[in-house]
Amino acid sequence: MTNKLIAAHNRQQDKAEATIRLLKKGIWAYFLLLIFEGALRKWFLPFLATPLLLVRDPIAIWLIYKTWKHHLMPHSWLLLGMTFVGLFAVITALVLGHGSLFVALYGARILLFHFPLMFVMGALMQRDDVINMGRVLLVIAIPMIILTALQFYSPQSAWVNRGVGGDMEGAGFAGAMGFFRPPGTFSFTNGNTMFFSLVACFVFFFWISKTKINRIVLIAATLALLASIPISISRTLLFSIIITMGFTTVAASTNRTYFNKIMGVFVVLVILLLGLSQFEFFQTSTEAFTARFEGASEAEGGLEGTLVDRYLGGLVEAISNSAEKPFFGYGIGMGTNAGSQMLTGERTFLIAEEEWGRLIGEMGPLLGILAIFIRLAFALKLSLESFKSMKAGDFLPWILLSFALIVIPQGQWAQPTALGFSTLIGGLVLAALNED
Q1: Number of structural domains found in the chain
Q2: How many Å apart are CA 418 and CA 320, to the nearest integer?
Q3: Half-sphere CA count of 296, side-chain side, radius 13 A
Q4: How far is it, in rounded angstroms, from Cα 60 to Cα 126?
Q5: Please, are residues 214 and 132 in contact by the beta-carbon 8 Å criterion?
Q6: What is the pLDDT of residue 227?
């Protein structure tokens, strides 16, 4: 009888492990589609550009359902609160707002599917899974920088610069000196910026940690990261990398051995940067980046104005003007580009370009501020737990947090790529906090 019970228990355990392995494959599918979804929409399946915009949503729904079905969904008041906000916002949008069911569902999917997916990733993945994903990111960064360099130096009419749906006008965005900001494999340039911001976290982590990584891959990925700064013509990427460097330095300063390592990393970065500066392609892109930086800084009132506008982005203004909005807003989904397309036939910002302004405008002061509070509370939760982990000697969650704090509190979740990277980094930080 005992042997039969043991055998039954083993079969149950094997089944549970098989389920978790299957769900982890779903997370990897979400990750890969996030990176290559734009390539499908631009180059390989342009005739499916519109439906591919939501290609990750079915995976998110399936992962949430299977996790809930197998009693693996974690309990969190943040999760329950955001679910309540999303469901209630659909009702108010239909009764008191724009009245479009499809627009409301499109907007609510952000809160009902992608936000919960962060907790699903945290429940299913372990620290080793995060590190493996980091290794893959570093490998992808190498061909990605080659692609972005080709896009940078090619005309917008070139195949590599083709836009969503095969748009011949190009996917690049205005940069400086006649050069355009390259999008890489993504639909828009912000995807390239967020990709290399995430790569930066793992580059610094692998340099200072004892975790095994192919040195050639690490050096090549570091070169790719350095080259991505001027080629991207993105100030946001530069600021993000500086923030990650700061977080890494704080972590390394807790131990003399690691502090010596980070000093060595800075020396390596300087050497690699000097090496890159000898090449004409890097010199040209650096001139374009410098011109863009100086021009934008002058327009925004210097570096202080740039930083305040970039991160705060009208957040205080959104709160102060919340009383002017309808109590339950104009309807969830209306502030997204896809929502505006469905409602007016044009892709435009019907409510606000800034994230907090969009949330309050869509859902009103009560639900909008509640959604903002939940995002801030989640960011605070990650910060406190990552800090504890860093003090205990595990730097991975803390370094990943440097990117999470940029995109989770006020990232523009109405944009699918930004939403995807926010979901991914939130889940990765939670998973990195798990002990194997």
Answers
A1: 1
A2: 25
A3: 20
A4: 19
A5: no
A6: 93
Which of 416, 145, 144 has its CA nearest to residue 272?
Answer: 145
pTM of this prediction?
Answer: 0.93
Question: Cα–Cα distance between 310 and 326 in angstroms, integer?
Answer: 27
**Cβ–Cβ < 8 Å for 379, 409:** yes
pLDDT under 50 in the chain at which residues? 301
Q: Which domain holds residue 174?
A: 2-432
| Residue 360, pLDDT score | 93
User: What is the C-alpha to C-alpha distance for residues 250 and 131, in angstroms, rounded to an integer?
Assistant: 21
Q: How far apart are CA 73 and CA 70, in angstroms?
A: 8
Report residue 417: phi and psi, to 5°: -70, -45
CB 409, CB 186: distance < 8 Å? no
Beta-bridge mates of residue 347: none
Q: Which helix (H) or strand (E) holds 181?
A: strand 179-181
Question: What is the distance, to the nearest Å, from the Cα of residue 393 to the centroid of all Cα atoms in its chain?
Answer: 26
The alpha carbon dihedral of 306, 307, 308, 313 has a sign of: positive
Q: What is the DSSP string of 402-413?
A: HHHHHHTTT--T
Q: d(Cα 326, Cα 373) in Å, to the nearest integer? A: 19
pLDDT score at 297:
59
Distance CA 427, CA 423 (A): 6
Could you give the residue ranges of the DSSP H alpha helices within 172-279? Answer: 189-208, 215-232, 235-252, 256-276
Check if the beta carbon of residue 134 is closer than 8 Å to that of residue 395: no
Q: What is the pLDDT of residues 331-367, one digit of tens each?
A: 999 999 889 989 888 877 888 888 999 999 999 999 9
Structure tokens at 264: 């060595």
Cα angle at 275 between 269 and 281, to 5 degrees? 115
Beta strand pairing call for 179-181 and 173-176: antiparallel
Q: How far is it, in rounded angstroms, from Cα 205 to Cα 335?
A: 37
Is residue 394 within 8 Å of residue 430, measured between CB atoms?
Answer: no
> How far is C-alpha 105 from the geometric centre of its chain's CA atoms?
22
Residue owning tokens 């040209």: 284
Taking the C-alpha atoms of residue 360 and residue 375, their distance in angstroms, rounded to an integer, is 14
- 175 neighbors 186 (Cβ within 8 angstroms): no
Query: How far is Cα 187 from Cα 171, in angstroms, rounded to an integer?
Result: 7
Please give the C-alpha separations between residue 133 and each of 190, 244, 432, in angstroms, as whole numbers: 21, 18, 11
In 3D space, the residue among 264, 196, 192, 204 whose CA is nearest the CA of residue 224 turns out to be: 196
